[in-house]
Amino acid sequence: MARTVVFHSHRGGTGKSTVASNVAMLIASAGGRVAMVDTDIQSPALDGLFGLGQYESSLGDYLLGRCEIEAAAHPVGPPGLRLVPALGRSCRLGEIMATGYDVGLLPEGFNRLSAVYELDVLLLDTHTGLNNETMTAIACADVLVTVVRAELAELVGAEATVAMARPTDCRRSVVINMSPGGVDPEAARQRAEQLYRAPAVVLPYAPEISVLGGERILSEARPNHSLVTEFRQLISVLLD
Ligand SMILES: Nc1ncnc2c1ncn2[C@@H]1O[C@H](COP(=O)(O)OP(=O)(O)OP(=O)(O)O)[C@@H](O)[C@H]1O
Ligand SMILES: [Mg+2]
């Protein structure tokens, strides 16, 4: 049975999609069977990051009953990695918002993906804050990763958000992303762990990511970058 790892944040733009896609790429490169689902229907990013190009089926098509979810899981990156994009040519945001869908289809689809592709890991990228998709994704988490920027005040809001979505416990972790130069990462990690009472990983701000323009993934484009080593460390915190 796959382990479901969910990337969530209380505020937007903290780096959920960036961190999740690098983690996916690295687990698959190491031989794992991985699927990523972009549950961020309102502002999807993963199809662009993975350079998916033209495709027929998406999560939205599955939710509207037009395909099975496995048909929307497109091979990307290294062998063993699949991506379910949020929307596509045949399913636009306006349509799914106007039509609505049965939210129970999400967990059903996640389970089916995991069984059909015999996944080791299922990674869910979410919309910031709380909406139906995000609440459902959090409820399905075996491991919940809260991604925050270096301002630790964000942690308080993040905790309140998660408490609403998930009354029960699951494994937790916090990523302090885009930590600026000059901040002692070990001190930041310890403060985050005290506040959050979960393992924390600090990832530095890497200007090389902006050069990629949201169209490539650092671990593929710059496999020897020091941040890639930090992503590997994060994977061991999440999955070991
Ligand atoms: N460690 C990092 N160093 C430098 N830039 C980063 C880093 N992590 C993410 N970014 C950049 O920050 C921006 C936001 O990242 P990303 O889209 O992954 O955040 P998000 O939390 O998924 O956003 P949204 O809330 O819109 O879904 C992007 O331009 C991305 O390239
Ligand atoms: Mg995102």
UniProtKB/TrEMBL annotation:
Residue intervals of the AAA domain? 3-160
| Stretches that traverse the bilayer | none
Q: Which Gene3D superfamilies match?
A: P-loop containing nucleotide triphosphate hydrolases
Q: Which UniProt keywords apply?
A: ATP-binding, Nucleotide-binding
Q: Which InterPro entries match?
A: AAA_dom, P-loop_NTPase, ParA/MinD_ATPase
Keyword Transferase found: no
Q: Note the PANTHER family from the entry.
A: SEPTUM SITE-DETERMINING PROTEIN MIND HOMOLOG, CHLOROPLASTIC (PTHR43384:SF6), SEPTUM SITE-DETERMINING PROTEIN MIND HOMOLOG, CHLOROPLASTIC-RELATED (PTHR43384)
Could you tell me what this protein is called? MinD/ParA family protein
